[in-house]
Amino acid sequence: MVVGQNGAHQQEESVYNLIPRVQVQAPKPPRYESKFKSTVRESFKDGKHEHRTMGYADEPVPDPQQFLKKKQNESKTMASSVAKETSSKKDSPQRKPPVPSIRDAPKMGTRTEKNFVQTNALDVVMTVPKKPERNVVDDRFGDKFPIDQSGLAPKYVFKKNFGEVPVYIKTRRDEMEKAKQEYQAYVSDYFRRGAMREMDDNERQTIIDGLKKQWEDVHHEYQTLSVIIDTIPKRQHKERLEHQMQLLEKDIDLLEKHQVIYIAD
Q1: Which pairing describes strands 196-198 and 9-10: parallel, antiparallel, or unpaired?
Q2: How far apart are CA 44 and CA 206, in angstroms?
Q3: Residue 162 in contact with residue 156, Cβ under 8 Å?
Q4: 3: closest CA among 14, 18, 11?
Q5: How many CA atoms lie within 13 A of 249 on its CB side?
Q6: What whole-number distance in Å separates Cα of residue 74 and Cα of residue 55?
Q7: What is the pTM of this model?
Q8: Do residues 264 and 196 lie in contact, with contact meaning Cβ atoms separated by under 8 Å?
Q9: 31/164 Cα distance (integer angstroms)
């Protein structure tokens, strides 16, 4: 291909370019169409109705030359109301049979052997009388409410087992007492073989009283100390009394806390 002076493209001189060639265009492939096209169109249109809710796109306007007549627009409203009534009738359940007319003859020949007078009398005699409701009035206007459900009436105190100790607590108490007796028997036998004895309650109480009397004496002496402690002997004497009271308190607490005490002979 050669470009000329004016910028136009010129073909090269060749034997094959002497005869003009016919431009052959390839045919286009056929357009794809789904085989479900008709089914989709029908399913899309199914359940849809024209002008059902929004009305006509272009509402027909009456001719200005023609005047409106009386009750001319009631035909449309009546048609819509009739359609609503028919739809509601379809949805409503089946109607009950009509009430018999006054001119209908009753069924004849039906008889019964039941004595209604005697039956009603027995029902009245055997019926348990209804108990009056227990209500309480809480204001001057006469407003009342049941007292049994309000919590104001004593309800649980009248039970047969009210105030009794539950069975599981009794069982647990017996088990604890039995375990305690077994432990005391085991400890007594163990210390008996080790030449130890158990302190009885009288001896224990006597020791506690003696310790308390000794603590009162030391405390009285501590109260008689001088207010001003300006020398080393006074300070040492005060510290010694405080130490004695602490030891006595510790011994008293030990004896009062433990009920069983063993002493080595």
Answers
A1: unpaired
A2: 108
A3: yes
A4: 11
A5: 8
A6: 16
A7: 0.32
A8: yes
A9: 96
Q: What is the pLDDT of residues 29-74, one digit of tens each?
A: 999 999 999 998 888 888 777 767 776 667 777 788 877 778 776 7
Q: Label residues 133-161 b or e (16+ Cβ within 10 Å = b).
A: eeeeeeeeeeeeeeeeeeeeeeeeeeeee
Contacts of 156 (CB under 8 A, 6+ apart): 162
pLDDT at position 15 over 80: no
Instruction: Write a three-state SS string for the chain.
Output: CEECCCCCEECCCCHHHCCCCCCCCCCCCCCCCCCCHHHHHHHHHCCCCCCCCCCCCCCCCCCCCCCCCCCCCHHHHHHHHHHHHHHHHHHCCCCCCCCCCCCCCCCCCCCCCCCHHHHHHHHHHHCCCCCCCCEEECCCCCCEEECCCCCCCCCHHHCCCCCCCCHHHHHHHHHHHHHHHHHHHHHHHHHHHCCEEECCHHHHHHHHHHHHHHHHHHHHHHHCCCCCCCCHHHHHHHHHHHHHHHHHHHHHHHHHHCCCCEEEC
Whether residue 17 has pLDDT greater than 50: yes
* Alpha carbons 144 and 135: distance in angstroms, whole number: 6
Question: For residues 145 and 136, is the Cβ–Cβ distance under 8 A?
Answer: yes
In the block, tokens 């200005």 appear at 64
| C-alpha span between 156 and 161 (Å, rounded) | 9
